[in-house]
Structure formats: structure tokens, C-alpha cells
Design a protein that fits this description.
This protein is mainly alpha-helical. Helix content is about 60%, strand content about 5%. The strands form 2 sheets. A two-stranded antiparallel sheet has the order 1-2. A two-stranded antiparallel sheet has the order 3-4. Helix 1 runs antiparallel to helix 4, helix 3 runs parallel beside helix 5 and helix 4 packs antiparallel against helix 5.
């Protein structure tokens, strides 16, 4: 199989099912940003221990499925829409957040991204995740039906990356950088 097809040279690509769309459309922004997040998660995993890597691998698998879901225009194809994210999957992320958060000191002030390299990469994942969420919401607001569990899952993931960054800083002995508007 050839990697290059030349079919996108004029700024269009095919969705799952064959419908041609602009590479600048909301749908591509959404699943492209989910793909970008997935790539940054791969980088983050290089800094994590086994338990975090296992959870993040599950997240990557889910995000790959979410990307496929977002790349499918079910209004133009005969493809059946199936739930790609369940409430149990959202709850799983919430449990992981709660587990990590229980090991941290109380959160009292805004924290600037940074501290240690692993925490910084987790913050990058958090911000890309937030952008992915905005892209998915923009897609939904354009009239595309988006499963609410997909939105909830991505929303929870950004919270997960925040608490993971805090814990990675703690594990690395790095100090959280607290934002104080009085100390510029």
C-alpha cells in the first residue's frame, strides 16, 4: 500500500465512507486535534511509570476510536453510528482523577505549566485536549450530531492531565510554579 495517494494535493480529503471535504473543515480540525493529542500522549508516556502508561495506552486506544468516529459523516453514508465512548469510560477517567488527586496537597492557587519535564508534557497534553474539546464543540455547533459521552470524555481528560502534571511534579521533586498576580 502506498503511503501517498496525491488525492489531497488540492486541499481536500475523504471522510470514512468516501465523502470529500476541505482539509480546513471543522470535522478535520476536530479529529486532527484528537490525533495531535494522541501523539503528545505518546510523548508523555515516555516519562511515566507502568501504571500510568497502561492507563494512557487505554486513553490512546479510545482517542483513536474517537478520531475515527469524528471522521465518519454518518449523514452521507450508510455507516451505522455506534457508541465509541460509554459512561463507564468517562467514569474510569473520573476514578483515575480522584485516585491521583487523593495523593496531592490541596489545590489553592493557579499553577503555571512547568516544574519538571514530565509535568510540562502533561500540561501540553492538557492544553491540546482543551483545544480538541473546543473543536469537537464547534463541530457540534455547526449541526453535526456528536455523542455527549465523547465530549464528556475529552473534558475529563483535560482534568486528568492537570492532576497528572501535579503528581508528576511531586514524583520528580519539582516545585509547582504558583501564579501570583502580585509577583510579576
Amino acid at each position: 500500500m502506498k503511503i501517498y495517494t496525491k488525492t489531497g494535493d488540492l486541499g481536500e480529503t475523504s471522510l470514512v465512507g468516501g465523502v470529500r471535504v476541505s482539509k480546513c473543515c471543522d470535522r478535520l480540525e476536530a479529529y486532527g486535534t484528537v490525533d495531535e493529542l494522541n501523539s503528545f500522549i505518546g510523548l508523555l508516556m515516555t516519562y511515566c511509570g507502568d501504571a500510568d502508561r497502561q492507563f494512557l495506552t487505554d486513553v490512546q486506544k479510545t482517542l483513536f476510536t474517537v478520531g475515527s468516529y469524528l471522521a465518519t459523516d454518518t449523514t452521507q453514508t450508510q455507516l451505522r453510528e455506534t457508541a465509541v465512548v460509554t459512561t463507564d469510560m468517562v467514569t474510569s477517567v473520573e476514578r483515575e482523577i480522584d485516585n491521583i488527586n487523593s495523593t496531592l496537597s490541596p489545590f489553592k492557587m493557579f499553577i503555571l505549566p512547568g516544574g519538571s519535564r514530565p509535568a510540562s508534557v502533561s500540561h501540553v497534553c492538557r492544553t491540546v485536549c482543551r483545544r480538541a474539546e473546543r473543536c469537537i464543540l464547534r463541530l457540534q455547533q455547526s449541526g453535526v450530531l456528536v455523542d455527549p459521552n465523547v465530549i464528556a470524555y475529552v473534558n475529563r481528560l483535560s482534568d486528568y492531565f492537570f492532576v497528572l502534571a501535579r503528581r508528576l511534579n511531586q514524583d520528580e521533586g519539582g516545585n509547582e510554579i504558583v501564579w501570583d498576580r502580585r509577583n510579576k
